[in-house]
Design goal:
CATH class of the largest domain in chain A: Mainly Beta
CATH topology of the largest domain in chain A: Jelly Rolls
Number of domains of chain A: 2
Shape of chain A: globular
Oligomer: homodimer
Number of helices of chain A: 9
CATH superfamily of the largest domain in chain A: Jelly Rolls
Structural class of chain A: alpha+beta
Strand content of chain A: 15-25%
Helix content of chain A: 40-55%
Largest interface: A-B, 37 and 37 residues
Chain lengths: 260, 260
Amino acid sequence: MGLPNIQLIESKKAERAEAKSAAIARWPCETCEVREAGICSVLLKIGAAGAGIQCGRPQQDFQKSPPRRNIYDADRPTENVFIICSGWAFRFVQLPDGRRQTLSILLPGDLVSGMALFARKLRYSVQALTKVTYCRLNRAELIGSLAAKPELLNALTGIFVAEQERADEAITDLGRRSASERISRFILHLMNRLAERDMVHDQSFDFPLRQQHIADAVGLTTVHVSRVMGALRQMGLVEIGGGRLKIHNLAELRRIADLK
Amino acid sequence: MGLPNIQLIESKKAERAEAKSAAIARWPCETCEVREAGICSVLLKIGAAGAGIQCGRPQQDFQKSPPRRNIYDADRPTENVFIICSGWAFRFVQLPDGRRQTLSILLPGDLVSGMALFARKLRYSVQALTKVTYCRLNRAELIGSLAAKPELLNALTGIFVAEQERADEAITDLGRRSASERISRFILHLMNRLAERDMVHDQSFDFPLRQQHIADAVGLTTVHVSRVMGALRQMGLVEIGGGRLKIHNLAELRRIADLK
DNA sequence: CGTTGCGTTGAGTACCATCAACTGGGGTGG
DNA sequence: CCACCCCAGTTGATGGTACTCAACGCAACG
């Protein structure tokens, strides 16, 4: 009784493994590490229910981008909505004279922006910061399934509210806070979002940003970012290197950031 | 044939006038000057159709506020959503140390904020800037009628997108633009919004803002606002007085504002 | 006629930008 | 292997924008 059963189990395992690797090719969501984050969990649930999103059109709907390439250019009409699957990206505006402001950093599981659902053209561009894989969804299709799927509507309103609150916070930071406040808040905010994705361990996390990216996000110059970050490092609050950031003195960093 | 008819007409006129003044007491929307602006037109259409919004519960749902009083205090739970009927208001955050940032100026016809629909507590406060009348709608009721009323959903998504775009613009302004750019953009943006309400004539419009309000909106101090506005005045671009602002050189102001 | 709120102006300063030089690491090609 | 370059970051010097503190004018108001 022993051996045959074991063989059976092994062969089933192999079957499943095969099925899985086939699925990987067709459907990266199956193995996605952040599939429970953000809007994806809802989309997958709906997709599983059979009716809803046609996320499964395979080759076209999952894209890759190398670092520093624009995923979307401002004001270009598109029928797609983007979700970041892996890697980091950011959404930004560039003024004619070259000044640049990034509006938000996009992490795995993030919808590029809620308003992308309801507008064919966006005022900002989206650029890959690391190697990025992202998912393109058809806007009209998504909106169509919105009326019939209250969970989706709920998830979206949640995303809208969060985005708007974050925007209000950014306005306050840029309007009224000093450079060191802005930078330490930026770091802590990033850590919180990564922690939600279980991407922080031992107060240390991946940090692929150049100082230029930080500067564009907090409205400063790279030179000044260098000075402030240097000070934070010298005070023993953070340590940066090898594409990672580690926080050594969270309490003090939070104090500087004027948090809680 | 002549006289009797005229009397009839006159008496009907009187009837209608009576009915109208009764309606004013119960339902200020009837005579609202901005009833076609923003979300109100949709709400009124739905209300007229009979089923939807119970905007007509009279005495409780229309409120007045004197200047400088908070209509809503940050983080206080509420079941209401606000719409500004007349007068100016603004939504702002106040940091513990007293620094203040206004997030948006609210004009007649404005929904206080789209996210107010989906959150019981808001991170910002709302304050009357002039004498204000505003309408309180029940949040749950409004959301309830949302599924059944696609026009309402459309209007709301439009408002969401506009708010988010405005927020992105504010982030860019505060992060990357100089004081004079910010102030001239602020003025021009305000003029555009007032023009949509037909409240601009001869490039002149009501301007009840103190320099403190401008400073809080554009992230500067009152002293610096005074200097920059003084310069704009001295260059002959604008004229301020008697609670009104008049633009004398639109082209040059737009140039300074880096618009178009 | 004192008070209060708002705007203006001046002097001095802090913060952050700008310009420029220099370092160190990583890749590339000779 | 080394020379070279490029990129990111650092550091210094200098300057400008905007802040702080303070005084004053002015109009509205009780």
